[in-house]
Amino acid sequence: MLRTVSVLALTLAIAQPAYAQDHRPDVPAAARANPANWPHASSPDAMSDARTEAFVAELLARMTVEEKVGQTIQADIASIRPEDLLTYPLGSILAGGNSSPGGDERASPQAWVDLARSFRAAAAARPGARVPLIYGIDAVHGHNNVVGATIFPHNIGLGAARNPELIRQIGEATALEVAVTGADWTFGPTLAVPRDDRWGRAYEGYAEDPEVQRSYAGPMTLGLQGELSPDHPLAPGRIAGSAKHFLADGGTHNGKDQGDFIGSEQELVDIHLGGYVQAIDAGVLSVMASFSSWNGFKHSGNPTILQDVLHGPLGFDGFVVSDWNAHGQLPGCSNESCAAAFNAGIDMFMAPDSWKPLYENTLAQVRSGEISMARLDEAVTRILRAKVKAGLFGSTYEVEGHFEHLGSPAHRALARQAVRESLVLLKNEGSVLPIRSGARVLVAGTAADDIGQASGGWTLTWQGTGNANSDFPNGQSIWSGINEAVTEGGGTAVLSADGAFTDKPDVAIVVFGETPYAEFQGDVDTLDFVPTEPLETLRRLKAAGIPTVAVFLSGRPMWVNPELNQSDAFVAAWLPGTEGAGVADVLVGDRDGKPRHDFRGTLSFSWPKDATGATLNRGQPGYDPQFAYGYGLTYARGGAVPTLSENSGVTGETSVVDRYFVGGQFVSPWALLLNDAGGQAKPTLGMGGVSPRGAIEAFVVDDRAQESARQFRWNGSGHGDAQVWGSAVDLTRQSNGEMALSFRYRVDARPSSAVSLNLQGGSVDMTSIFNGAPVGEWQSVKIRLSCFGEAGANLGGVETPFQLGTSGTFTVSVSEIRLASNEGDTVCPAR
User: Fold this and answer.
1) What is the pLDDT of residues 215-253, one digit of tens each?
2) How far is CA 510 from the centre of its chain?
3) Which residues are identified as catalytic?
4) What torsion, rounded to 10 degrees, do the Cα atoms 395, 401, 407, 410 define?
5) How many CB atoms lie within 10 A of CB 501?
6) What is the pTM (predicted TM-score) of this model?
């Protein structure tokens, strides 16, 4: 509710400077933006109407410096308790990618509501100005954090749909489901323009060409927030948005996440400004600054971008929030202290686990003058303004707890429409599609009945891993949708993961693709689709004379020429989410084989001719794709595809950052070495032991599959260790993201002395873990990379990601050595 204030207060509010110049970081010429080169936009007048500004000015005048600094700090729910707010007057909390009530990623919707209410109650109980919290969450393809919510296709699929009105409706549905569970702010829309498909977040972008972002940014913002009004705040069921990541997060060199955009200011304007103009014009209440750099200078510390441009010609009146501990990456800064980022234009620090010392240090910097009071007041004014417009003052949270909106029939129908419209038909030889609903259909591929794989990263967990179909009670797998459509048409459908069959089918649908990933894990060196099982299945079916339809799930275009050659029809389904029936709607026709729905999707990313991953974008010199931007067949407009070259163009080994030992094989370039006092030996892949006269031997054993694990036996004759060794990789970003070294193990004989696990010079003691495990049973453990870093590991050049050693007797079997996300299940053993 707004209140009447004096004319003097109103005059002071209007007279505030557009931005404070104090202590601005110096910016090198190569990263210095000139506002005269940028187009004009403007937050709506309703964002900073006189009534709102008067309320904010009066409130600001009553706030203590401690309360003001608190407004600039955001903590993650995994690292703060409600009672902390009685001491620390923080202005915001967030639920990060792997944060959830009580650390339970499958927590009930009621648990999410209870969490929100407990934090709000604590904030309301503190004395003083009592500014309400703003609670943010990454709802990037629906409310993807909560069991039972509607999971829409990821942005790469929505970009293929080319339907702005659909995007507005998705924003509206997402906002309602978020509001139901107690949050009032989402970190979206994502407006990245991915220019290198090797980037692990490419699927978060709508298109390689900013035309799609420009057409979608406004509708998504209006869907989430509704139109701003000078007379009332956002309506119940609407939430604040945050356009991200400003700027050029999709343009980094070689597609490296949090990397460097090397290019001109004109390229920033022409390509990477993308839909920000439209989002600002639509009234987006916040903008998230990017981790990335421009010509070597971090955006989080660049006032020419965050202040001169954003609040200058772009006319943005909301506030700027940083990304996850991004301030700590600036020179001279740490996660716990960074006046430079604040002075550059960051209004709110996302300080998930560093919030307490950051609050104390920022307060000290204000008191010392390193951060001026004018700059602090400027930031807090922007935050308070957004909170007023979001309706946080006096909100009754009318839709909160109305769980009938989560995964509602209307929202599921909308998601199903989005799946239909996002599918892109790359090939349809002999008109194998559409499939007669009365046909005998074989559905193959492990992805066919896996809703989690179809949903991708940022789904319940940060990386989207560890999900079962039971975690999607309102969802439907692709197999389930196909089975339903075929059965209703009088046909029969059989699910066979490996494509084996007893009765020859009329047609086979093979569903395969990338497994879920998010930032850190998703970056790749090439676009080669490596798994061989789908290709082998397609070849067997083709040899048997069965028409085959490939449904490819991916977060980016990939080189799949061998799979395309072995398929009669090939569909790029992207990451469709929880409504697998949308795939069946288009693939399965009526009883006469006529389409029920035609293909509408067209490529918003160019499809590569080879696997090298060289940048491939419409309009660039030498543009020569396999399938061009805008390509997409339909039933009404078909087209043949000739046999494609199966020369991938990739030579030599590539860097594999996150997988070391998978499926019984050491992933190239990683290998196993045994070390002991008698020298070093490389084990064979056979059943016989190696280094039989040394301190350690290795054997091939079974885990989940035949010969999928290695057993290590120490005989106590001296120190020995089993070491995974390969080319050096940089894991500093993964450590910052709290990734963990994960492996499965089975203790076959307990250790007689201490057992250490070393990662590139950082060692932790595993003795208690192995002694506490039941003998003969497979277990899993995740050890945070930061634990190894604290123990002295060189995370910037890891050649040995796994080195297990002891000088006593010990027998243990190990499988599946890889990096994994922290889903509240990591440990940090004693050093």
Assistant:
1) 999 999 999 999 999 999 999 999 999 999 999 999 999
2) 26
3) 323, 519
4) -60
5) 17
6) 0.89
